Amino acid sequence: MTNQHHPKKGKNRPTHEKIERHYFGQFLSHYESQEGNFKCFRRNYEIPKGDIVYSDSPDVMIHGVTTLGEVTTLGVEITNSYISDDPEKSEQAQRELREVVLTRAKSQAPKGEKYDLWIGFDPFHPILKKQATPIARELAEVVENNLDKWLCGHVPKQFFEHILQVKSIYFNPIEYPAPAWRPLQCYEGSTLEFKRVQEIVEKKSRKLQNYQKCTKYWLLIVIDFIDRAQDQDLQLGAEDVLQKSPFECVLLYKPPFGELVLVRQSDDG
């Protein structure tokens, strides 16, 4: 297969197109290696031999010929599955809000500025943007009023149980030249909810009528474990079956591990 390149966009960070190329490049590599579930998948679903064009709507178009000699165009739409679609409660937003809370709290707690603190936040009580300032103030008050009572290690919950968004506090009583307040790992692993898959497929299906014409379409749903806002286990039950969609196949894909799950549709058998 050959690649047709498009003009480069900004240089500061990867463009959406470059990210999609990266994901599809990994997918194609696993497809050709036939490792794991890709071996069975390749027997039933063929990527034609031909030119790969990175475009838009769909993201990838492959104009080629099948092993049976049929001229065809495969369109592959690529999207990511995030644990939450709520822009304020998503892990991306929460990471920023936690840093805001810690920066503001430290500036309001002169006693605590000398020490390292690790604060764990509760993902089940997300920080809303309007709450960042009052939470920071409450956290600063906890540190200022109780610092002398703490020894090295975990701080008893009783000192901060009124701050629902804070799950734990770890205190180091040794003074350092450049102490910091840091967020503790607070991410909770989760299993991909089938409802999320249905929502993605329904959303993409509605847009498909405006896509460039292809013989058939695939939907590649990427779960990138490096981004904690996406990382989910790919486990679907026997009862998790989609209503028939315009996509020939709907795929769940974890690029680094080559994990692939073909989501069943109502007439897949």
Describe the model.
The structure is a single chain. By secondary structure, the protein is α/β, with parallel strands linked by helices. The protein folds into two domains: 2-83 and 190-263; 91-183, no CATH class. The chain has helices at 16-33, 38-44, 91-107, 132-146, 194-207, and strands at residues 2-4, 49-54, 60-65, 71-80, 116-121, 153-154, 166-172, 181-183, 216-222, 249-254, 259-263. The strands form two sheets. It has a seven-stranded mixed sheet with strand order 1-2-3-4-9-10-11. Strands 6-7-5-8 form a four-stranded mixed sheet, with helices on one face. The longest helix is centred in the N-terminal third of the chain and has 18 residues, at 16-33. The relative contact order is 0.16.
Summarize the structure.
The protein is α/β, with parallel strands linked by helices and 269 residues long.
Strand line-up of the largest beta sheet? 1-2-3-4-9-10-11
| Multimeric organization | single chain
Give Rg in angstroms: 24 Å
Count of alpha and pi helical runs: 5
Determine the strand fraction and express it as a percent band: 15-25%
Please give the domain count. 2
> What's the story with the biggest beta sheet?
7 strands, mixed
Number of strands: 11
First-residue to last-residue Cα separation = 32 Å
Overall, the morphology is: elongated
User: Percent range for helical residues?
Assistant: 25-40%
Q: Provide the structure class.
A: alpha/beta
The overall pLDDT, averaged over residues, is 85
Sequence of secondary-structure elements: EHHEEEHEHEEEHEEE
Low-confidence segments, ≥5 residues, pLDDT <50?
2-11
